[in-house]
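Any chance you'd type out a single protein's sequence alongside its tokenized fold?
>
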Amino acid sequence: VYSNLSLAVEEDPTLYPARLKLGQLLLLNKAYPSAREHADAILAAEPENVDAIVLLAGVNLREGNSDAAQAEAQRALALRAGDPGATSILVSVYRESDPDKALSIVNQSLEVESVSALKLLKIQLLGARGDIDEVVELLKELTEDEPENMAYWSMLTKILVQSGKIEEADAITRKAVESQPDNIQIKLWRTQFVATQKSAEEAKAVLEGFIEESPESYELRFALAKLQMAMQEPDAAKATYEAIIALDGEAADSIRARNGLIELAIKANQRDEVERLLAEIFELEPDNGEALRTRAKLSVIDKDIDSAIADLRTVLRNDPQSVETLLLIARAYEA
């Protein structure tokens, strides 16, 4: 992005939207003189360009000139009331010296622009004051405004848990699922919450309910198998993996499920079953990394180091950044 913007501005310095984005990137990368240069160039042509004024205010703030930053931010707000960027800069100026004034500035902007950036800014200030009830109400607003944003649901439940309001947090996770019934990640998040804050047994029941609603969601079934393994229920986990294979046939998720069965067979010291499952996987996908790593581990146990290293090198050709595979090669050479 930076290179494309630089080239565009070099070819046509009057491309002010590009200069603005470039200046903002430079500010983020602490290249303050260069960022100032772009802000000044824009303002020379467009003196009331609010975004450029905010950029200049940001440069002044980062360079320690809070008086200039304050003046530019106030100028930006006079031109565009409620601007989140200008508001944030003024809050940064007053956050430590006058937190009440900082909060008042945000409230004034929120009266004009009730946007998430300003609400998050207010949440930060209220959190620093310990006004938890107000923080919770604002986070609830954000989840209503943007139910697809997992961060807001997560922040809300976290603060409720920290306040000892487990049941209210649980109700929030239910509401999150209801707001997006097709979102598998939110369902997994609720399951994790129940497992952490209540019990594995309750989490299992939640997952089974979700699977009943979405029987072809393999991610939910994999989560169930993982939970069953953690609960020391290998037979149940095996049945869950086998159900995935029955549904998915010979596709990618069925291979992943077979690798899960291999993990169970290894724990049960069922070498023949491991070999059988590996053969099935290699017939479907000869270069499957997880299966190759498993076979390499078995080869090391059998003192067949050359075969182990050959398998691991095959994995590295497809995934050269695999730390696990690199560590296995090192161990194979030491064996």
Summary: The radius of gyration is 28 Å.
